[in-house]
Amino acid sequence: MDNLSVEHLLGIRDLTEKDIQIIFQTADSFKQVINRPIKKVPSLRDITIANLFFENSTRTRLSFEIAQKRLSADIVNFSAASSSTKKGETLVDTVNNILSMKVDMLVMRHPNPGAAQFLSTKVNAKIINAGDGTHEHPTQALLDAFSIREKLGDVAGKKVVIVGDILHSRVALSNIYCLQKLGAEVMVCGPTTLIPKHIHQLGVKVEHNLIKALNWCDVANMLRIQLERQDIKFFPSLREYSMLFGLNKEILDNLDKEIVVMHPGPINRGVEITSDVADSKQSIILNQVENGVAIRMAVTYLLAAKIKHQ
């Protein structure tokens, strides 16, 4: 098997198209593993992984943990809420203390953009960025693109619209990089206040009318409104947002074609997407969750291979 060109997974921006294809091919094999009666492989029996979450997470954290257990790795879980960082210890000190216990790999989520990148220059371990502030969330973008490939056969040439809170979303940025590297066309759609000013420099289309965006696309990725990241009001009310940018069954049924509906979760049902859309046959939201485990197994396995070769 080919090796990745990177030593860490810090962001999609660092990956080549070949890297992404290697991750997808590896995830294909792991997807077969997780659908077997015995869902474990002994690949990483001698690897210890620390999960460092300095920010709340349920799905990403569980997904990484399950992926690591399926690969037979040893796992250490670290939650910042109950850690010495609350006592003023620095990030590097915290991590070095963990690494001195002979940990090989770190999966880290942190509220500060660039935290994973910074850490990669300071410590001797492979690092997977599980989301850094509003910057990147590479494994989410990989599982999203992998899910599109699984559903539509290929990502190249497909039209994907990302709808909602683009300004605060690390998922949107990683998705834009990933989809473009795989040859998809990308559009963002949302209220003017939630679209970054210079986003057109990334080569994406911008649309403020949801119906036009949906008629253009093959796939709609509906983002969650990140109320926890919004210090000021970016739109008058959730009800108004939902009326202008929420996806319901009536809108879906009135389009002149069938589109694929995605959501990175957790869903605010009735805000960005209604229950009957989330649970419809056009939705691949649960496939995304399943694919998340396969993708995270693949990334962990490929980076661990580099540890063994040192």
What does this structure look like?
This protein is of the alpha/beta class. It has 2 domains: 12-136 and 292-308, Aspartate/ornithine carbamoyltransferase (Rossmann fold, 3-Layer(aba) Sandwich); 138-288, 3-Layer(aba) Sandwich (Rossmann fold). The chain has 11 helices and 9 strands. It has helices at residues 17-34, 59-70, 91-99, 115-120, 138-152, 170-181, 210-216, 238-245, 249-254, 275-278, 285-308, and strands spanning 48-53, 74-79, 105-110, 126-132, 159-163, 185-189, 205-207, 219-222, 260-262. The strands form 2 sheets. Strands 7-6-5-8-9 form a 5-stranded parallel sheet, with helices on both faces. A 4-stranded parallel sheet has the order 2-1-3-4. β3, α4 and β4 (126-132) form a beta-alpha-beta unit. α1 (17-34) packs across α11 and α2 packs across α11 (285-308). The longest helix is centred in the last third of the chain and has 24 residues, at 285-308. The chain is globular, with a radius of gyration of 19 Å. The two termini are 17 Å apart. 45% of the residues are buried. The model has no long low-confidence stretch (mean pLDDT 91).
How would you summarize what this structure contains?
The protein is built from eleven helices and nine strands. With 310 residues, it is an alpha/beta fold. It has a five-stranded parallel β-sheet with strand order 7-6-5-8-9, with helices on both faces. A four-stranded parallel β-sheet has the order 2-1-3-4.
Comma- or semicolon-separated keywords:
single chain, Rossmann fold, 5-stranded parallel β-sheet, 4-stranded parallel β-sheet, 11 helices, 39% helix
